[in-house]
Prior knowledge:
Elements: H1 13-36, H2 44-52, H3 60-67, H4 73-91, H5 103-107, H6 116-127, H7 143-169, H8 183-223, H9 227-257
Helix pairs in contact: 1-7, 1-9, 3-9, 7-8, 8-9
Amino acid sequence: MADTRGDETSTGADGIGGLVSAMTDRAATYQFLSNVLSENEVTTDFLDSLRANPPFTGTELDEFATSLVNADPTQLELARRALAADHSATLLGMSQTPVSPYESVYTSPLHLMMQEARDEVLRAYRENGFEKNAAYHVPEDHVAIELDFMCALADRAADCLLTASDLQENPDAAAPAARTGSSDASAAASLAEAERALNAQLAFMNDHLLRWVPQLADDIEAKATTTFYRGVAQMLRGFIADDADFLRGLAADDGEEA
């Protein structure tokens, strides 16, 4: 959940190392947000982990984590139950004014589920070899799945960048089949794949996340009754804005180098 903004965009070994760290941090943040906004309630194990590794997000989530520091098992269970109630009322429709965490509801003329946005994100998933986690039993334009998609692409970019860095520093590390060509060519292929993953992230950010997630975050923050879910909403809104700037910055730097 670290700040991913930075100045290192070079494809040299040092620059790649910085980008790998940024991609890894971004993937972790997307995964965290996907998990806590999914259809599944948080567990006491999750709360225990949050207590042991409190976030520093500048949101009410930090306040919530601090409140757990001295909690005993009974208090952790009470906190879990409070979050379960807030989660059900806010995100699962178990209240008179729930938040519907589906892109179709926010972007379709009639504000219904399973509309054009769902078909569009499903197409993006298939084009990028992404499959919905079998644990999710919701349409593909649920916010948790869209965030999980971004996590997968960030992980892919990190893996490709790391491979390119390894090939640049250790040409003999290439697989035997790859050694018939130059290590520079193999590194270039890995960098090209990383660029494709980054381009896919920027496209998905512009075509989907920015179109509805900021409003979703506002709605969750207004509806939620716990500092945890209000903090998650605040974190979501801030991270999406920052990550959009980050991805645009990478694209601009890449254009200048071309």
